[in-house]
Design a protein that fits this description.
Blueprint: H1 2-25, E1 31-38, H2 43-60, H3 63-66, E2 70-77, H4 82-92, E3 100-101, H5 106-119, E4 123-125, E5 141-143, H6 148-161, E6 166-172, H7 175-190, E7 194-201, H8 209-220, E8 226-230, H9 233-245, E9 254-257, H10 259-267, E10 282-286, H11 292-304, H12 313-334, E11 341-343, H13 345-348, E12 361-363, H14 366-374, E13 377-380, E14 383-386, E15 397-404, E16 407-415, E17 419-421, E18 467-472, E19 482-483, E20 490-491, H15 493-503, E21 511-516, H16 525-533, E22 539-540, H17 548-551, E23 555-556, E24 561-563, E25 565-570, E26 572-574, H18 587-608, H19 619-632, H20 645-674, E27 677-679, H21 685-690, E28 695-698, H22 703-710, E29 718-721, H23 724-733, E30 742-746, H24 747-754, E31 760-763, E32 770-772, E33 775-776, H25 781-796, H26 798-806, E34 818-819, H27 830-857, H28 868-884, H29 889-923
Parallel strand pairs: 1-2, 1-3, 3-4, 4-5, 6-7, 6-8, 8-9, 9-10, 18-21, 18-22, 28-29, 28-30, 31-34
Antiparallel strand pairs: 10-15, 11-12, 13-14, 15-16, 16-17, 19-20, 23-33, 24-32, 25-30, 25-31, 26-27
Helix pairs in contact: 2-12, 4-5, 6-7, 8-9, 12-14, 15-25, 15-26, 18-19, 18-20, 18-27, 20-27, 27-28
Length: 924
């Protein structure tokens, strides 16, 4: 009996235990409440409402996701109002909401994100693109669409692709507009582009057609013709309408609209007359790859929307946001997560308040749900739903479309993976990323004005302002640039080049020259160029050298004149004297040549001593023989015959060297004796820097900076000179009489100076290479166009004609313009000497190897000593005696001759015997 009663009790306890355990593992509620915040009267809101409802229906009908748990959604209309959004978010918190789909507007998102952080409720926003909403400040804000950071990167790459340097931005003046344009400015700066003018439009209802017309009139007076429009649809359509009325949708303009226009086009919400006002506009649209699931949903969408509302990318992201939340909740419940809330102690302390804040509660496991959302990895209608390390969806990409006729044409794609491409981004993910300039491609565009030619992107501003051009007011070398006395006009070589280049431009450039300098001395050109960066001048025209420290702050045109620093020094004529024959070679060249004569003589003596009687005899006679033989090769008059093969090899190479030296010496001596020679103690910039003599330079020239900063010459040695007359006076006086040893200046000035001063010459080569150009602010398009014009002047010969007009040279400048030494240096012959030296070394090496071989093969007469030192001494004595003893070459030759002779005699005797036998036989 006891056993019978005990068994039911055990089964009952087991059932209770198992039931409790099962509730702990799969504590899934029947209903989970979620909220949705968006603007119902907007295109995005109307599409998102239907998409969210359909997603909710699909999720609840799919038992494999939440396993019986249903999602219940409460929708609120914020109307893009931050206040209403905050109030409605607080109302959600009274109804145990675990997550919110939305908000749609950036203004609302900034406020609601603070509430979400406090109550730990994740926000899944399918429409907020403001790039400043980041996880560091708002950890519970999850962006399920693309940030404008990527969209503005795409815009910046399009602008860089077409080589435009400046743009104008028109934006709505709220968090969405301001922060988007700020991101665009950063991305443009990375590509050396800039926003030249930005103008915000108030998001209020007081904006009318007159306000937009005043704004666009100011834009039309600007230089840039590339306009980026980042506004709401209603403002965007108004801007295009007014721009079309003002003629700003015609040839030369570029309009780039962000994705606000794309979702209006996709949704079919364009006003009837809007398309005609937007022809040629480039539009960005969030890229969603094609798939079977997406195609099936779009076919369903026509029935859901009744054919009156098209699907856009934000509707697809709203649909995917619901599925993303459903999968995250499923993982949340699988991990044992429970839907529970607790009161906020800081809110319950405010019991006296009439706001009923104590009704709001904190989602206890909100952090766990957020973690599961960020760890999601599934594929939705928009592609992969997976978050990267920056908590953004991976593989951001945009379609680039061109508005044409009644529709649009896609000209390419942009992706964060490979930049601009004509291939869909998903086909590039399997390849290595490639952001090189050559790989960026787009199809051709029909621009505003129905032209396929790429717009220049800028015009000269038609705002009545003249281009302020600074011109140096020179007091010397006025042939280059000078102010006409009595008025503000300028003339000279540089002015004529600038005027001719401007006349070649396809547009008018109104400008006015402004003199820089006091008229008593040449101004500092570095200070003049710096005034461009401060906005005092819009450009600088004159003899401005293109040097490194200036190119760091301004842009220069193509050089229109070659320039560079040279050294000018006085010279004197050299008369041919008694020792003129020594001048063709430098002292070092004479020394090396003499040493080689002796070395070659010694080498030949060593090689011939054992076998040639002419190189044997008493020591005194051998010394004379060596000297006579080596010197006589200079005239190819040596009488001693060389017998050895090695000796002949060395002699042949040496005679070739002597031939070259003789020819060079003769040519140089002839030039010295027949051509007038000039001499200067200064040989170039190297000898000038090594001395302590004073150096002259032109006032205002960059030569002072180069001498002191690059060559480290003390400023105490530099003497400022203001005119060609001061040049001549200082050079003639010399350093001993208060003058200078030389003058360092740019080549064009020096050439003009030497055309009238025949007592001076350029010494040494030009030691810097640069040119003269016109200076403009950084990234100025006018600098590029003027560079092209200068090249045209050079090609058609106008540049040379302008040069000849102002810089005609006199006869004395036609003489040798550069003074150099006529002496021959060792550097011109070191290759010959090297070959000869190698031949001598190789011959001696082979010779000594032969001697050592003979030494080892010979047997000494005396017994070998047991002491090592004695053995080495005997081997050395034997080596020296072997080198000195005469080799009996004639004996070996005679033996060979006798052997050959005996064989010849035997053959001859045999021939005579056979002949006698033949004679006898005939006689018989």
């Amino acid at each position: 009996m006891k056993t019978i009663w005990f068994l039911p009790l055990v089964f009952l306890c087991f059932g209770i235990f198992s039931t409790g355990f099962g509730q702990k593992v799969s504590s899934r509620p029947a209903v989970v409440n979620i909220g949705a915040l968006f603007t119902l009267n907007s295109t995005i809101g109307r599409v998102a409402k239907i998409a969210i409802e359909e997603a909710l229906k699909d999720v609840n009908s799919n038992s494999s996701i939440l396993h019986g748990t249903k999602l219940n959604i409460t929708m609120q209309n914020t109307n893009c109002s931050g206040f209403l959004g905050m109030v409605e978010a607080l109302q959600f918190m009274e109804t145990d909401i675990v997550a919110i789909i939305g908000p749609q507007c950036s203004t609302v998102a900034h406020i609601v994100s603070h509430v979400a952080n406090e109550l730990q409720v994740p926000l899944l926003s399918f429409g907020v693109t403001d790039p400043t909403l980041v996880s560091l400040q708002f950890p519970f804000f999850v962006r399920t669409t693309r940030s404008d950071l990527y969209q503005m990167t795409a815009v910046a790459e399009i602008i860089s692709y077409y080589d435009w340097k400046a743009v104008i931005t028109i934006y709505i003046d709220d968090e969405y507009g301001r922060n988007g344009v700020s991101a665009l400015n950063d991305k443009l700066a990375e590509r050396r582009c800039r926003i030249s003018y930005r103008r915000g439009i108030s998001p209020g209802s007081e904006v009318n057609r007159g306000y937009i017309m005043d704004l666009l009139v100011k834009v039309a007076l600007m230089e840039s013709r590339v306009i980026v429009l980042h506004v709401t649809p209603n403002l965007g359509f108004l801007v295009f309408s007014v721009a079309n009325y003002l003629g700003m949708m015609g040839n030369g303009y570029v309009w780039i609209a962000t994705d606000w226009l794309a979702y209006e086009i996709d949704s079919g919400s364009l006003p009837s007359d809007a398309v005609d006002t937007m022809q040629g506009v480039l539009v960005l649209r969030q890229h969603t790859p094609d798939s079977d699931r997406k195609g099936e949903f779009l076919s369903r969408w026509k029935k859901l929307a009744g054919g009156s509302l098209g699907m856009n990318s934000y509707g697809l992201y709203a649909y995917d946001s619901v599925w993303l939340l459903a999968h995250a909740l499923n993982a949340f419940f699988n991990q044992g997560g429970k839907i529970s809330f607790s009161n906020d102690s800081r809110l319950t302390a405010m019991e006296d308040s009439n706001l009923h804040l104590d009704a709001m509660s904190i989602f206890d496991n909100g952090a766990l749900l957020l973690k599961n959302i960020l760890q999601s990895n599934l594929v939705g209608l928009t592609g992969p739903l997976k978050f990267g390390s920056d908590r953004s969806l991976i593989h951001p990409a945009y379609d680039i479309i061109n508005v044409l006729g009644n529709g649009y044409r896609r000209i390419g794609y942009w992706s964060n993976y490979s930049g601009l491409s004509t291939e869909p981004p998903e086909t590039l993910y399997s390849k290595p990323p490639n952001h090189s300039r050559s790989s960026q491609k787009l199809y051709s565009v029909i621009w505003p004005g129905e032209t396929s030619a790429k717009p220049r992107g800028w015009v000269f501003p038609n705002n009545g302002k003249l281009l302020k051009i600074g011109v140096p007011n020179r007091v010397s070398y006025r042939e280059f640039v000078s102010q006409v006395r009595g008025n503000n006009m300028f003339q000279g070589f540089c002015i004529d080049v600038f005027t001719a280049a401007v006349n070649l431009l396809p547009y008018a450039v109104p400008y006015q020259f402004y003199a820089f300098g006091d008229g008593r001395k040449n101004p500092s050109y570095t200070e003049l160029v710096n005034l461009i960066t401060t906005g005092v001048y819009d450009a600088v025209v004159g003899d401005i050298a293109i040097v490194t420290n200036r190119t760091k702050i301004v842009d220069f045109t193509q050089p229109y004149a070659a320039s560079g620093l040279v050294v000018v020094a006085p010279f004197k004529k050299l008369n041919t004297g008694a020792w003129a024959f020594l001048r063709p070679f430098t002292p070092f060249m004479w020394t090396v040549t003499a040493c080689f004569f002796i070395v070659v003589g010694i080498v030949v003596w060593i090689l011939e001593h054992r076998i040639n009687d002419e190189f044997r005899g008493p020591p005194k006679r051998q010394v004379i023989t060596v000297l006579w033989f080596s010197l006589s090769t200079l005239f190819f008059a040596h009488r001693e015959n060389t017998v050895s093969t090695l000796g002949r090899l060395v002699l042949i190479i040496w005679l070739f060297v002597v031939l070259i030296i003789n020819s060079s010496y003769t040519a140089s001596l002839t030039s010295i004796l027949t051509v007038q020679q000039l001499y200067s103690p200064i040989k170039g910039i190297d000898s000038l820097t090594e001395s302590d003599n004073p150096i002259g330079y032109q006032v205002g020239s960059f030569a002072e900076y180069y001498l002191t900063q690059e060559l480290n010459i003390s400023k105490s040695r530099l003497v400022a000179l203001g005119s060609p007359e001061e040049y001549a006076k200082a050079l003639k006086a010399g350093p001993k009489n208060g003058g200078v040893a030389a003058v360092v200046d740019e080549l064009p000035y020096v050439e003009l100076f030497l055309s009238s001063q025949c007592s001076f010459r350029i010494v040494g080569p030009e030691f810097t290479k640069s040119g003269w150009g016109f200076a403009f602010p950084r990234d100025s398009p006018l600098a590029v166009d003027l560079s092209t014009a200068i090249l045209q002047l050079a090609e058609n010969g106008d540049l040379q004609r302008i040069h000849d007009k102002w810089l005609v040279k006199s006869s004395c400048s036609l003489e040798s313009a550069e003074l150099e030494s006529d002496r021959l240096h060792l550097k011109s012959f070191w290759g010959l000497f090297l070959i000869c030296g190698i031949a001598c070394f190789v011959a001696l090496f082979i010779y000594f190897v032969q001697i050592i071989h003979q030494l080892r093969g010979s047997v000494p007469d005396d017994s070998v000593s047991t002491e090592p030192s004695s053995a080495r001494s005997r081997r050395l004595q034997r080596f020296l005696s072997l080198m000195d003893e005469k080799e009996d070459v004639s004996r070996s030759k005679s033996k060979r001759m006798k052997t050959e002779g005996s064989s010849f005699d035997g053959d001859e005797e045999m021939g005579r015997s056979s002949k006698r036998r033949e004679t006898g036989s005939n006689a018989n």
